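Below is a filled-in request sheet from our internal design queue. Each sheet records the structural input a requester submitted and the sequence that came back. We keep these sheets so that new team members can see what a complete request looks like end to end.

REQUESTER: design group, bay 2
PRIORITY: normal
MODE: inverse folding
CHAIN LENGTH: 350
BACKBONE (tokenized):
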């Protein structure tokens, strides 16, 4: 039930000799011939499985082609993983990092491979969950996000990772700017959505370490459905916890959603026993002590942010900077979500 790898996609190959030379200097006890394959999932950084004898490691590097200025910062990701290692036992161990462009033409790092179950759109073959198991799984995953948000980030050495004051405004302005910087002629303008978000910005409810992309397929489970690892920290920063929850719930499709929205489901949040989005918000606020009148702003923000990420990726596909064909289908979802967000705005109490 662990994630399988595939041969490396055309255009995303690594220089095997360069990787091997770097690794043997960075990890002196490494033995055996090097083998590299690729994890096919994910739509941002490129992730590879590196085998050296019986040892398995995961290599992460930025994608090729045009990238947002502040995105895909490998050294930042390494810093977060290293700082959290002592206070959050769910981060993978960093084994080596490289900022020499002469090796692969970009920064990259290697971390331990966490051997466990990663849930994607549907449960792995051979796995079935009853209602009670599903409810326990759901609580386990949400509780680990609450744990992350409870960390004393200053004591962990991450006090200068981000600027909590004005975080909400910077996010709205930043994601709106990123959308404008990745135009394609077939994408909606999203002007009304961006204007509404700017007008309805709430003050920050607090500051904490936020993951930025916390969801089921970035969580590693053991056979008892306990979380043993949290992956993909490239968007981690210091910011408002409810903005992070909004990011996560953008992926949380439930069985009573409109049928077209359900077609976009990427994780098994439709199973009997899973909390609904509103139940997740209530559970989170009850356990953290945060009080809010409505989650509308954070829900709409989270979905818009997801739209921008997809548009940035689709921009690279449209300009043939990536050959991954599944990115070409993103435009249909980008178009659909424009109307969906406008309906959420029309029904909002804000």
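RETURNED SEQUENCE:
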């Amino acid at each position: 039930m662990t994630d399988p790898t595939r041969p490396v996609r055309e255009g995303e190959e690594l220089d095997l000799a360069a990787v091997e030379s770097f690794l043997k200097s960075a990890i002196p006890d490494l033995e055996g011939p090097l083998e590299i394959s690729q994890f096919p999932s994910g739509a941002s950084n490129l992730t590879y499985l590196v085998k050296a004898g019986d040892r398995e490691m995961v290599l992460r590097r930025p994608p090729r082609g045009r990238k947002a200025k502040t995105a895909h910062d490998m050294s930042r990701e390494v810093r977060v993983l290293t700082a959290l290692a002592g206070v959050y036992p769910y981060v993978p161990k960093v084994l080596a990092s490289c900022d020499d462009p002469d090796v692969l033409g970009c920064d990259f790092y290697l971390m331990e491979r966490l051997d466990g179950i990663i849930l994607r759109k549907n449960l792995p073959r051979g796995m079935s969950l009853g209602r009670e198991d599903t409810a326990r799984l759901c609580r386990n995953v949400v509780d680990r996000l609450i744990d992350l948000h409870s960390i004393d980030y200053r004591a962990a050495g991450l006090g200068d990772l981000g600027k909590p004051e004005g975080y909400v405004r910077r996010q709205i302005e930043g994601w709106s700017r990123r959308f404008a910087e990745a135009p394609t002629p077939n994408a909606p303008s999203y002007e009304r959505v961006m204007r509404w978000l700017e007008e309805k910005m709430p003050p920050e409810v607090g500051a904490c370490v936020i993951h930025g992309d916390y969801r089921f397929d970035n969580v590693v489970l053991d056979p008892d459905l306990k979380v043993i690892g949290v992956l993909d920290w490239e968007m981690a920063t210091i910011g408002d916890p409810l903005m992070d929850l909004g990011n996560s719930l953008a992926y949380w499709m439930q069985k009573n959603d409109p049928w077209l929205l359900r077609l976009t489901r990427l994780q098994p949040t439709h199973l009997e026993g899973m909390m609904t989005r509103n139940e997740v918000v209530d559970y989170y606020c009850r356990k953290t002590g945060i009080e809010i009148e409505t989650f509308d702003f954070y829900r709409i923000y989270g979905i818009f942010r997801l739209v921008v990420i997809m548009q940035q990726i689709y921009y690279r596909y449209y300009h043939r900077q990536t050959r991954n064909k599944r990115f070409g289908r993103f435009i249909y979802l980008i178009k659909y979500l424009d109307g969906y967000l406008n309906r959420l705005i029309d029904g909002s109490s804000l």
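SHEET NOTES:
- The chain has a mean pLDDT of 93.
- The radius of gyration is 20 Å.
FILED BY: M.R.
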